Amino acid sequence: MDFPKGVSFFYGFFMAFLLCTNTIQAIPNYKDALAKSILFFQGQRSGRFPTSNGMPWRAISGLSDGSLAHVNLVGGYYDAGDNVKFNFPMAYTTTMLSWSALENSKPLGPQLANVREAIRWATDYLIKCATATPGVLYVGVGDPNVDHKCWERPEDMDTVRTVYSVSRNKPGSDVAGETAAALAAASMVFRVTDRKYSKLLLRTAKSVFQFATQYRGSYSDSLGSAVCPFYCSYSGYKDELLWGAAWLLRATKDVSYRNFINSLGANDATDIFSWDNKYAGARVLLSRGSLVANDKSYDSFRQQAQDFMCKILPNSPSSTTQYTKGGLMFKLPDNNLQYVTSITFLLTTYAKYMKSAKTTFNCGNIMVTPNTLINLARKQVDYILGDNPMKMSYMVGYGANYPRRIHHRGSSLPSLSTHPQSFGCEGGFQPFYYTSNPNPNILTGAIVGGPNQNDFFPDERTDYSHSEPATYINAAMVGPLAYLSGR
Fold it and tell me: Looking at the domain assignment, is residue 35 inside a domain?
């Protein structure tokens, strides 16, 4: 279309203004996303809520947890969209929240107190699990096979709250090693603000880790269908022993943990990091000794961490990581964003260590700088927050376009205040589970499983592999969001 010269000028100016405005609006608000990513944990709480709860549609639940074993196991978090407390992913969630706080205390700013609160909600529960009965570590509450046949609010739970544990006769080195890591990492978070609590955490971590090493075996073998296929320890337990020892080493500086690490011989190569496989996380954590403390005896871990990064970077000759056309790291079809957030955490953390050492490394003939890792991390975070082909934020409540039909019982069912009557086990399926209507309650900050390999997200409640949020997705996102908001 042709315009008169003056009109053409103003039209061009107006379009440029719109383009500029849209660009400005598209810039992610990392601080807002950070606050919401932490607030999410209040929606996952089990137990008796404090009066100042950020999710007013949630209420007390699970107050009898542990009673079947004659112990008090009230508290902790529901892992995802169900009403079960699985300690294996919960402990990993706690470790990642603690690592986020330790590495990003300054950029977290006012959110540091909220992260501590989220950590303590978990560690109070994990301490109970580790100390309630001598020689026993409780590792879960709620029969997952029964729970997954129901669609009811946590507040209405009428399913059996079976208690699961590991012991010397039924070992669980993986879940025990992760629990020790969580308690050790958290002990450093509370070292300044609550020294007595910090000492309790560390003392308990040492005890649990001793149990993990003395009675070796996988909790998947001991507990079977109570944890598999939900949270099977597919990678075995050696990675959790490495991870637990690495955290205890950082918390105590005790050389015995370093000796244990050396004797473990955990040299498995990996291109993933998750609640199940901790090798990459442990190596990045241990590489800190080489890069930050300048201790050459840690150089082997530094090399392993670099090898991992070379498997992740898209232009690296040794890359084993797929990316979607939209630029999203794609590891596995189910709940892919859990791997994206966990690996992104390692990218920003290792970049921070590299900056401290003022160093670079090579993937073949490609030089990798701290900014190489940071730019990839930023791309992943921005994609999650809406810079993607669908222009959708995969964090609930962030931006204008986000998932409305997430696979989450409490979010999808009317709250007690609007519907005081119990729905019962199967009462929530019709009309709330199968409806195309949006969820009535907003689980602010929840990051869902994410899009498929074609950058497509259907936003269907029944599609749990893409629409279900989980504590361990969010826990790993806190660090990168804090890091980026502080730059």
Answer: no
pLDDT attached to residue 268: 87
The answer to whether position 18 is within a domain reads no
Residue 459 a catalytic site member: yes
Q: Has residue 27 been placed in a domain?
A: no
- Tell me whether residue 20 is in a domain: no
Could you say which of 147, 276, 407, 408 is catalytic?
407
Tell me whether residue 468 is one of the annotated catalytic residues: yes
Report the C-alpha gap between 369 and 367 in whole angstroms: 7
* Catalytic residue status for 466: no
- Give the whole-angstrom CA distance, residue 148 versus residue 285: 36
pLDDT tens per residue, range 409-430? 999 999 999 999 999 999 999 9
Domain that holds residue 175: 44-485
User: Per the residue annotation, which of 65, 82, 271, 455 is the catalytic one?
Assistant: 82
In CATH, what number is assigned to the domain containing residue 187?
A: 1.50.10.10
3-state secondary structure of 69: helix
Gap between the Cα atoms of 193 and 331, Å rounded: 39
Neighbours of 115 (CB within 10 A): 25
Whole-Å CA distances, 281 to 110, 297, 375, 443, 445:
27, 18, 20, 28, 24
- Which residues are registered as beta bridge partners of 322? 330
Total number of domains in the chain: 1
Query: pLDDT tens across 135-157, in order?
Result: 999 999 999 999 999 999 999 99
Q: Are 210 and 168 in contact (CB under 8 A)?
A: no
117 among known catalytic residues: no
